[in-house]
Structure formats: structure tokens, C-alpha cells
Write a structure and sequence with these properties.
By secondary structure, this protein is an alpha+beta fold. The chain contains eight helices and 17 strands. Helix 1 crosses helix 2. It folds into three domains: 60 residues, RNA-binding S4 domain (Structural Genomics Hypothetical 15.5 Kd Protein In mrcA-pckA Intergenic Region, Chain A); 94 residues, Pseudouridine synthase; 157 residues, Pseudouridine synthase (2-Layer Sandwich), CATH 3.30.2350. Strands 5, 6, 7, 8, 9, 12, 13, 16 and 17 form a nine-stranded mixed β-sheet that branches. Helices cover 21% and strands 27% of the residues.
């Protein structure tokens, strides 16, 4: 329980509204929270409750019990993690699909940062208390390898490699339909979508546009599908998904860019059970190569395909070869 704070209105503060006065003295709280505290009767002026709009006079006495400040730091949760590599500088995690990397509106629990807070005593602070250790991110539905820094020194060294594009990332994806070319480089800038806030789009000469390049190579072709490796040279939000959709071959089950959020077994095998085969975008961060943040030795870390993508490929192999 917070301790009541006693204040006296100074000469230069006379004439201020009560909520404005509290904002000056309790800057860690938002005006909205302070107004709610006033409305709840947690503030008195000369012994009586008051309104947010009350104009203060010199030497009036204010008694306020400030609300507790809630930390934005992730709450530790005992969520199993698939650790691919760990030492004193960083850890590499095979992130499962459907896991959000850090807390955000609508996704406060079950995040990677909550799992990290439970399993590791030390994480870097460079990203702030909401993103301890997080050097880069993956979309919620994208699975695969992600690097997490334990120290600030490691974080800065890894972040510099991402910024300077010396890291090499390889993704595995299923596209539908298959691209016309066996391999190609897509060099198209990506910016804000003109009318859908949650999406990105190819935007030439727009204020939000940033250069984006993706190299792709077909691994195997099937009727209506292809397994593909993609090596993005830049790291724009939704880059692979936007680039693949741009060439008319969106990532399978990419709700935002393909219009389909899932695929049933019967879509591929009419004789099969009508069960969901895949219900998230078929995109997996398969491999990342980078220099160790301390030893500078070149490293390569791989995350094997998760069951849902592996099983989908097996059914496509069986029914669409």
C-alpha cells in the first residue's frame, strides 16, 4: 500500500487545475491515471475531495495516495524453450510458431520474453525492460532461430552486425503457386500499406519506403506448390511475405498476404480426413550465420523444421509430385 503524500500549493502554483498540479509533482503517472485517482476519491484538498478541474489556491493542502507504478518488464513464465546454443554472451532459441516475441497489446502472456525471464538470470538491458535480451525479432507465426543477448556488450555487437548486414539469414518456406524462375533477387522497397495499418506494401518513392532485397531459390517444385529457401539481404518488417506476394507466389497460409489462413488435409488429399494441416504462415527461420559477439568466430546455427511444416511438405510430396 502506497504512503499518502502531503503537499502544499506554492504561490507560483496557484490557479492550476488539480490534475495539472499532480502531473507536475507525479510525472511518472499519466494524466489519465491521475484523473482516475481524483475521481476515485484518492486526492483531498484541505480535507475534502475535489474534481480534476478544481482550481487551486496558495497554501491549500493536498493529500494524495499515488497508485502503484506497474512495471512494463515481462512477468516470468515457466514456458519450455528449445535452446539451440548457449554461452555466457548469448543464447539461440528455436522459437515455436504462434509465440509473440515481446508483450504488446492483446499479447501480454505466453511471450518469448516471459519465457526468457524465467529461464535466464541475466539478459541484456539495451532493448529496455520490455525487451530484455531481444536483438531481433520474428513474426508471431514465424518459427525458427532467434538470437538473445545476455550482456549489453553482446547485444551491441550482434545489433551492429544486423545493422551492417553482415549476418546471413536463411528461411524455409512453402509458396503457392510455384515461382516461374528457379532463383531470383527481388529488389523492391517496402513501406506502409496505403490503407491497411497491419500490412506492408511495395512502395516506390514513398516517405515510409526502405530498400529491401530478397534472394530466393526453389528447392523443389510440385503441382501448385514449391518449397523455397529465401535469403533476405535486408530485414524489413514482413519482407519475405511482401516480396513473395509481389511476384504472385505468396507464402502458404499467410492470412495477410495470401487471403488464406489455413489449409486442410482434404485440400491436398481428397481421400484424407477433413483436418487442419497448417494454420499459420509456412515460414521458418532455418539458419543464421554471424560472428560471435566476443570471440568474433564465424558461427552458423540451424533450427530444424517444425512438425507442422514438415508434415505439410510430406503431404504435398505425396499428393502433388
Amino acid at each position: 500500500m502506497a504512503t499518502p503524500v502531503h503537499l502544499t500549493v506554492a504561490q507560483e502554483e496557484a490557479g492550476l487545475r488539480l490534475d495539472s498540479y499532480l502531473v507536475l509533482h507525479f510525472s511518472k503517472h499519466s494524466r489519465v491515471k491521475l484523473q482516475r485517482a481524483i475521481a476515485a476519491g484518492n486526492v483531498s484538498v484541505d480535507g475534502s475531495t475535489a474534481r480534476s478541474s478544481t482550481k487551486l489556491k496558495r497554501d491549500q493542502r493536498i493529500v494524495f495516495t499515488p497508485p502503484e507504478i506497474q512495471s512494463d518488464a515481462p512477468i516470468p513464465e515457466d514456458i519450455p524453450l528449445d535452446v539451440l546454443f548457449e554461452d555466457d554472451a548469448f543464447v539461440a532459441i528455436n522459437k515455436p510458431p504462434m509465440m509473440v516475441v515481446h508483450p504488446a497489446k492483446g499479447n501480454w502472456k505466453g511471450t518469448l520474453t516471459s519465457a526468457l525471464a524465467f529461464h535466464f538470470n541475466q539478459l541484456s538491458s539495451v532493448g529496455g525492460e520490455t525487451r530484455p535480451g531481444i536483438v531481433h525479432r520474428l513474426d508471431r507465426d514465424t518459427s525458427g532461430v532467434i538470437l538473445v543477448a545476455k550482456t549489453d556488450q553482446a547485444h551491441q555487437a550482434l545489433a551492429a552486425q544486423f545493422e551492417n548486414r553482415t549476418t546471413e539469414k536463411e528461411y524455409f518456406t512453402i509458396l503457392t503457386p510455384a515461382p516461374d524462375r528457379d532463383r531470383d533477387i527481388i529488389d523492391k522497397p517496402i513501406g506502409a500499406h496505403p490503407y491497411q495499418r497491419e500490412k506492408k506494401a511495395i512502395r516506390e518513392n514513398h516517405s515510409t519506403s526502405r530498400a529491401a532485397q530478397s534472394f530466393y531459390e526453389v528447392i523443389k517444385r510440385y503441382r501448385g506448390f514449391a518449397t523455397v529457401r529465401v535469403r533476405p539481404k535486408t530485414g524489413r518488417t514482413h519482407q519475405i511475405r511482401v516480396h513473395m506476394a509481389h511476384i504472385g507466389c505468396p507464402v502458404l497460409c499467410d492470412k495477410l498476404y495470401s487471403g488464406r489462413s489455413s489449409i486442410n488435409l482434404t485440400h491436398l488429399d481428397p481421400q484424407g480426413e477433413d483436418s487442419v494441416l497448417l494454420d499459420r504462415q509456412a515460414l521458418h527461420a532455418f539458419k543464421i550465420q554471424f560472428d560471435h559477439p566476443v570471440s568474433k568466430q564465424r558461427m552458423s546455427i540451424t533450427a530444424e523444421l517444425p512438425d507442422d511444416i514438415r508434415q505439410t511438405v510430406a503431404i504435398i510430396e505425396k499428393t502433388r509430385s
